[in-house]
Each structure stands twice: as C-alpha cells, then as structure tokens.
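Lab intake sheet, docking and co-folding queue.

SAMPLE TYPE: protein with bound small molecule
LIGAND NAME: magnesium ion
LIGAND FORMAT: SMILES
REQUESTED OUTPUT: full 3D complex as structure tokens
PRIORITY: normal
SUBMITTED BY: R.K., bench team

The fields below were copied directly from the construct record.
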Amino acid sequence: MHPIKISDLRFKYEEAQKNILDGINLELAAGKITAILGLSGCGKTTLCYCMCGIIPHIYHGHLDGEILLFGNPLHKMELSRIARSIGIIFQDPDTQLFSPTVEDEIAFGPENLCLDREEIAQRIEICLKLVNMEKHRFEHPENLSGGEKQLIAIASVLAMDPDLLIFDESLAQIDADGKERVKNVMLQLKTLGKSVVLVEHDPDNLAIADDIFFLKSGKLEAINITNKREFDELYKI
Ligand SMILES: Nc1ncnc2c1ncn2[C@@H]1O[C@H](COP(=O)(O)OP(=O)(O)O)[C@@H](O)[C@H]1O
Ligand SMILES: [Mg+2]
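RESULT FIELD (auto-filled):
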C-alpha cells in the first residue's frame, strides 16, 4: 500500500488569485526516500501541509482532489489520528522545540497519546538512541547546536511512531556535520521500513533519495538527476 496516494489535488489559499497546487498526482513508494524539489514559493510546504492534514484542518482554502493516507481518505481523519501515521519536521527546529529538557520534549507526543509511563520511557530511549543523542537527555534544547536541535525535533516526532516522515527543508539551517547526522537518521528510518519525504532545494542532499519529483506550476513531475549541471538546468526559468 502507498503511504500517500494523491489524486488530482488542487489547492488555492483563501485570498490567492490562482491554485498553488493544480493537479498533483503522486503515489509515494513505501519504505523509500522520496525527494520533492522546487523553486522557493512553488508550493512545497503547501503540499506538505496537505499531506499531513494541516490543510484543511488548520489553514483553510479551496481544496479539491483526494489524498489517501495508508488507504484512508485524509480529509475524513482527525488530526490526532493523522499524527499517529505521519510526522513532519520543519526547517527551523526552534519552532518545534518548547520543553525544558530533551527528555520532556520527546515525551510530549506520547503523553498526549496517553500512553503508559513504561511505554513512554521506552520510546524516549529508543528515539534518543536512533538519533544518537542519548548523552543529551537531560539538557535544555536551547543549549544544543542547530543540528542537534534538529535531531531532537526528529526524535520527538519519531516518539509518535509514525510510518511516514516528512522533512520540509529540514537540512537548510544546519551545519555540514548536522546535515550528515540527519541524513544518516533518514537512511536508518528507511532500514526500519519507514517512508520518508525529503523536501529539498540543495542537490548535495539528494544522493540519499530513491525517487525525485519536481514541483512546478502546481504539478509534480518525476525526474532523474545524476549531476549538478542537470540540476541547474532544471532551475532555469
Ligand atoms: N497561509 C497562506 N496564505 C496565503 N498564501 C500563502 C500561505 N502560505 C503560503 N502562501 C503562498 O503560497 C505560495 C507557496 O508557498 P509555500 O508552499 O510556502 O512554497 P515553498 O515551500 O515551495 O517555498 C507562496 O506564494 C506563498 O506566498
Ligand atoms: Mg517551504
């Protein structure tokens, strides 16, 4: 089954003149890393919002078409149920971290799911190990580097045990070492059978992707890029 299957998705923000998404079709491959590229402002984040229900639950507009999340129509699902299957990590980890310790940060999601203490403790350990941040368990997230913060944001999303992870330009604001660590986590998630969507603009981060799509004029197109020159061609307007 496809983690996400999108059929003829169209979306227009309330005040906008035209559709930012204008006939998106996508069958996401399970257990793979799928990259979505596109120029700034082309609608990548909007598409992420549609895939995780932020549109239409939080941001409104004119939405058409269908999204199936593991076979279930997304528009009929409550956000709390969607959050058990799909997790999203944004560009700036500071928007995602708000707890006084790393441990509390990771516990927050599972606590909201009303899991028992033992299960929560187990998830904290597993997720910290996965992102290789065990030794920072009792630190304040504020004191971590950008890359480390992003790893904690990932761990806090993983604590909900979603089968699909969306990274919306999550590598953009972190240093080279942080990027490598986050990319390694993505590869590990793949070996655990999770599906990953990697929204990107930097060709150097595409080596880990199994499939690549380009978003342009509201539509997605499968592409095959093997070198930087081809990538630059793609970005010429
Ligand atoms: N909440 C919103 N209301 C109205 N327009 C928006 C909103 N969010 C984004 N947009 C517009 O939609 C377009 C696509 O934005 P976005 O999805 O963030 O693109 P990307 O992530 O590819 O940079 C932009 O022109 C942006 O100004
Ligand atoms: Mg964006």
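REVIEWER NOTE: Residues 214 and 220 are 5 Å apart (CA to CA).
SIGN-OFF: pending second check by T.M.
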